[in-house]
C-alpha cells in the first residue's frame, strides 16, 4: 500500500472513530466489552516426565470452570511429547474451550533487530506447522511471537524495518491470520488491531502481556496471585482488555500447587469484574472486535 493512501485511510478512520459514541466504536481501545484472553505458551524443552499430568489437569480444570484457553504450541514440544499431545488433541477435539495454535518450531524470534534470516524463520515455521498437522490433525492459523535473548533488541513492530515487514509477509503467506498486536505506536497489551497498515486487514492482532515467567517464575512483583488479581481489578476499572500469558512449564513446575489454582482464581476474578473470557480463535471470528470498519469499505 502506498504511504499516501495509508495516511488517508488511517486519518479518516481516526476521525470517524473519534466522532462515534463509545458504544458504537466498540472495543478498539477499550469500549464496554472487556475481553480476558488466557493462553499457555506450550514450549517445554526438557524431559517429558517433568510435565507428566499437566495436560490432563489442564483439561480437567478448564472444563470444570469453563475457562476458554489457547495453547500456543512449539513444534519441537509436540514432537518430544507426541503421544501425550495426540491423546490431548483427541480429548479436546471439537470443544470450543480449547484453541490450539503455534509458537514456532524451535522458539525462534520474529520482530527483532538482529534476528535470523527470513528463509531460516520460514523453514522453522513450516516445520512447526507440519508437526501440528501430523500430531494435532490441524494446521494452525495463529502464532504467538517468541521472546528470545540472542536476537538483539525487539523492534517496535512489524512495520519497523524492511526485514520485519518481510517476516510478517512470510507468516501471512503460510496462512497465519492472527498474531500479537505488533505495530509501532500500538499498545500490544491493550489493543486488538487489524493489520491493514501492512496491507493485510484480514489478519488480527491480539493483546499479549503479563507473562508468568515474570510474575510467577521470577516472582518480580511480590505475591504472584495477589499481583495478578490487583492488575485485573485495575484494568477492569479502566475498561481495558486483559491478556494473561501462562507457560506450560511455569504453571506446572513453578506454581504453588499442581491444581492450577492460580489459573482458576484469575479466571474467577476476571468474571467478577465483568470480563468476557475467550479463546484467540473466538476473537478472530468476532470481526467487530478487531477489524477497522473502514478497511472493509475502503477495500471494496
Ligand atoms: Zn515462548
What's the structural blueprint in terms of helices and strands?
Layout: H1 3-19, H2 22-25, E1 35-42, H3 54-64, E2 69-73, H4 75-80, H5 82-92, E3 98-102, H6 118-136, E4 142-143, H7 162-173, E5 178-180, E6 193-195, E7 200-206, H8 212-217, H9 224-237, E8 242-247, H10 248-253, H11 261-272, E9 276-278, H12 280-285, H13 287-290, H14 293-299
Parallel strand pairs: 1-2, 1-8, 1-9, 2-3, 4-5, 5-7
Antiparallel strand pairs: 6-7
Helix pairs in contact: 6-7, 9-11
Bound molecules: zinc ion (ZN).
The site of zinc ion has 6 residues, from loops.
Describe the model.
The chain has 300 residues and is an alpha/beta fold. It has a single domain, classed as Glycoside hydrolase/deacetylase (TIM Barrel, Alpha-Beta Barrel). It has helices at 3-19, 22-25, 54-64, 75-80, 82-92, 118-136, 162-173, 212-217, 224-237, 248-253, 261-272, 280-285, 287-290, 293-299; strands at residues 35-42, 69-73, 98-102, 142-143, 178-180, 193-195, 200-206, 242-247, 276-278. The strands form two sheets. Strands 1, 2, 3, 8 and 9 form a five-stranded parallel β-sheet that branches. A four-stranded mixed β-sheet has the order 4-5-7-6. Helix 9 packs parallel to helix 11. The two termini are 15 Å apart. Bound molecules: zinc ion. Residues 41, 43, 103, 107, 146-147 line the site of zinc ion (ZN).
Amino acid at each position: 500500500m502506498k504511504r499516501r493512501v495509508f495516511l488517508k485511510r488511517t486519518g479518516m478512520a481516526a476521525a470517524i472513530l473519534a466522532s462515534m459514541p463509545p458504544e458504537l466504536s466498540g472495543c478498539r481501545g477499550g469500549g464496554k466489552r472487556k475481553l480476558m484472553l488466557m493462553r499457555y505458551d506450550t514450549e517445554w524443552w526438557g524431559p517429558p516426565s517433568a510435565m507428566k499430568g499437566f495436560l490432563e489437569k489442564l483439561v480437567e480444570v478448564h472444563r470444570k470452570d469453563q475457562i476458554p484457553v489457547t495453547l500456543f504450541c512449539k513444534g519441537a514440544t509436540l514432537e518430544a511429547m507426541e503421544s501425550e499431545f495426540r491423546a490431548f488433541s483427541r480429548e479436546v477435539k471439537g470443544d470450543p474451550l480449547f484453541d490450539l495454535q503455534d509458537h514456532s518450531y524451535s522458539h525462534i524470534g520474529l520482530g527483532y533487530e538482529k534476528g535470523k534470516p527470513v528463509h531460516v524463520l520460514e523453514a522453522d515455521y513450516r516445520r512447526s506447522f507440519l508437526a501440528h498437522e501430523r500430531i494435532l490433525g490441524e494446521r494452525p492459523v495463529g502464532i504467538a511471537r517468541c521472546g528470545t535473548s540472542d536476537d538483539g533488541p525487539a523492534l517496535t513492530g512489524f512495520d519497523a524495518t524492511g526485514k520485519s515487514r518481510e517476516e510478517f509477509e512470510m507468516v501471512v503467506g503460510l496462512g497465519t491470520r492472527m498474531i500479537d498486536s505488533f505495530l509501532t505506536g500500538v499498545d500490544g497489551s491493550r489493543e486488538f488491531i487489524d493489520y491493514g497498515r501492512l496491507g493485510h486487514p484480514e489478519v488480527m492482532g491480539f493483546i499479549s502481556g503479563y507473562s508468568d515467567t515474570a510474575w510467577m517464575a521470577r516472582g518480580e512483583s511480590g505475591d504472584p496471585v495477589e499481583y495478578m488479581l490487583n492488575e485485573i481489578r485495575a484494568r477492569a476499572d479502566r475498561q481495558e482488555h486483559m491478556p494473561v500469558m501462562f507457560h506450560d512449564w511455569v504453571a506446572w513446575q513453578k506454581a504453588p500447587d499442581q491444581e492450577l489454582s492460580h489459573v482458576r482464581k484469575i479466571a474467577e476474578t476476571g468474571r467478577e469484574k465483568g470480563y468476557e473470557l475467550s479463546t484467540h480463535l473466538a476473537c478472530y471470528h468476532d470481526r467487530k472486535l478487531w477489524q477497522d470498519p473502514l478497511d472493509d469499505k475502503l477495500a471494496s
